[in-house]
TrEMBL record:
Pfam families: Transpeptidase. It is found in: Membrane. Residues 248-532 form the Penicillin-binding protein transpeptidase domain. This is Penicillin-binding protein. Keywords: Membrane, Transmembrane, Transmembrane helix. InterPro entries: Beta-lactam/transpept, Beta-lactam/transpept-like, PCN-bd_Tpept. It comes from the Bacteria. The chain crosses the membrane at residues 20-39. PANTHER family: PEPTIDOGLYCAN D,D-TRANSPEPTIDASE, PEPTIDOGLYCAN D,D-TRANSPEPTIDASE FTSI.
Length: 539
């Protein structure tokens, strides 16, 4: 072997030095090998392990979407392990070239790398390496006592995405009766997936296999990753960069299954669930409930006329039918409609559709879903009828407005579909509560009024010519003079009906002429349109 290097000696001093050092090392290794072979120490022999295992993920269950797709995103960590005992068996004749190559590859990763230091240690020595280094090392097949593996670490940058929230279930204590607590009981005996490595008779770790415990269970959510990915693309558009955050929640109408829960800034506490908040004022999207109660109780007809004198409204709307008042979102007339319903009945209709209570029942650590705040009677029916003096979450409103689309039946939105075993068999299927709230006639009337809102009312920026959509805008008071924008509406993908709530919290008040005073009709409605169009695009 030596002659290979002689020609380069004069040309490259550095290489010569490395080579010389290396040869000394090899001599030491050879000497060591000699000792081991000729006088095999019993201690070394008995402590020899021919099998190693490494955790290859920092989560011991999978979080799947409704179609079985993995919802987590991982950062891949590449690791080199040098197991010093079998590594010391490397020898001059068999593995010199590979050892030199490994030394060269690892020096570019870490200049401090040297075999002498490694040989001073006992047991396994770990090195974090790049993907490139990982691939290069895997081409070296002859070196004794080394192996590499890839470890999946959850990408925690999007800490408040719903799947990242579910990734913490085994790390925290949960309130009894919470959704996390229920899921915890299925997952608590899971073991981390491992890679196993076996030494062959040359002391090379030649065989590797992944082992996942037969008892491991996984969570399947109702989320549809394809829908969420498309929603995210819309939210990331430059044209919405003026909004600090945007919350999108979408429910499949007939089942109550949440198909998407996404927010523009997933590093901020989850706004769709109102986490770390008491909820948000719904403003005029609450008029859907006021109208629903009044129609359902037979207190008004949709064509009845009322007069707006501008007591609450900034402009005087004059004489309008109830449907027109809904299109224009007239506060005066809705205050009057609400006062016919009365506080108790209005609260009954609201609570029957999940307002002022947790919908998903998420309750653990600092991740408590907001319950919202029920308005006090003293707040006045005029305020309550137009969605003021109360707090709700987007997911609460999603469920309530879906009742209209679902012909008057409230389907409590839910997010965990099932628990699966290792082979994807369903161990536990989750169901939801349903409740008849409105008559079919009431639902149809309101659905049609929501259609008129986007054809000629405050929601015109959500209008899409050839698609059947409808909705209601809302603008409400946020913090420090900022405004919350809302748009809640229905749409279809193919034959399926969906309800979506778009929530744009804390809109900075704009002074420029282009935007004027921004509300839900300007901020949330165009996003609704954009998302519906994107979801209906053929690929
Ligand atoms: Zn008015």
């Amino acid at each position: 072997m030596f002659y290979i290097f002689t020609g380069k000696f004069n040309r490259n001093k550095r290489l010569a030095q490395i080579t010389a050092m290396f040869l000394i090392l090899i001599m030491i290794l050879t000497a060591k090998l000699y000792v081991l072979q000729v006088y095999p120490s019993e201690k070394v022999q008995s402590s020899y392990q021919n099998h190693q295992e490494e955790n290859i993920s920092n989560i011991n269950y999978m979080i799947l979407d409704t179609n079985g797709k993995d919802l987590m995103t991982y950062d891949k960590k590449y690791v080199l392990v040098i197991d010093t005992k079998p590594f010391s068996l490397n020898n001059y004749e068999e593995t010199l070239e590979d050892l030199m190559a490994l030394n060269f590859i690892m020096k570019s990763e870490n200049p401090e790398f040297n075999y002498a230091n490694i040989m001073k240690q006992s047991g396994k020595v770990y090195f974090n390496i790049s993907e490139d280094t990982y691939n290069k090392i895997n081409n070296l097949k002859n070196i004794k006592g080394i192996y590499t593996y890839i470890k999946d670490e959850i990408d925690t940058k999007k800490a408040w995405s719903i799947n990242n929230m579910f990734s913490k279930i085994l790390d925290e204590e949960h309130e009894t009766g919470s959704l996390e607590g229920e899921v915890y009981n299925y997952l608590k005996d899971n073991e981390k997936p491992k890679s196993e490595f076996y030494l062959d008779n040359r002391a090379v770790y030649a065989k590797q296999c992944v082992s996942i415990s037969d008892n491991n269970k996984n969570i399947k959510l109702t989320i549809d990753k394809d829908i969420e990915d498309k929603v995210r693309k819309v939210l990331d558009k430059e044209e919405y960069s003026y909004l600090s955050n945007i919350g999108i929640s979408i429910v499949e109408t007939s089942s109550g299954k949440i198909r998407a829960m996404v927010q523009k800034d997933e590093s901020a506490a989850n706004i769709n669930l109102g986490i770390q908040q008491i909820g948000y004022e719904p403003g005029s999207i609450y008029k859907i409930i006021t109208l629903g109660a009044a129609l359902d109780m037979g207190l008004i007809n949709i064509n009845d006329t009322f007069t707006c004198n501008g007591k609450i409204c900034k402009e005087v709307h004059g004489k309008l039918s109830v449907e027109q008042a809904f299109e224009k979102s007239c506060n005066d007339i809705f205050a009057e409609v609400g006062s016919k319903v009365g506080y108790e009945k209005l609260m009954e209709y609201s609570e029957a559709q999940g307002l002022y209570d947790r919908v998903l029942n998420l309750e653990s650590g600092n991740r408590n879903e907001a319950k919202g705040v029920k308005p006090l009677k003293e707040a006045g029916i005029n305020n309550i009828s137009i969605g003021q003096c109360m707090n709700v979450t987007p997911v609460q409103m999603l469920g309530a407005i879906n009742t209209i689309v679902n012909n008057g039946v409230y389907e409590k939105p839910y997010i965990v579909e099932s628990i699966l075993d290792k082979d994807d068999n369903v161990i536990k299927e989750f169901k939801t509560d349903k409740k008849k709230v409105y008559s079919e006639t009431t639902s149809k009337l309101i659905k049609n009024s929501m259609r008129q809102v986007v054809i000629k009312g405050t929601g015109i920026k959500a209008y899409i010519g050839d698609l059947d959509i409808g909705g209601k805008t809302g603008s409400a008071t946020g913090n420090e003079g900022k405004t919350h924008g809302w748009f809640a509406g229905y749409f279809n993908i193919g034959e399926k009906n969906y309800t979506m709530v778009v929530f744009t919290p804390e809109i900075e008040s704009r002074k420029d002429k282009e935007y004027g005073e921004l509300g839900g009709g300007d901020t949330a409605a165009p996003i609704f349109k954009d998302i519906v169009k994107t979801l209906n695009m053929r690929e």
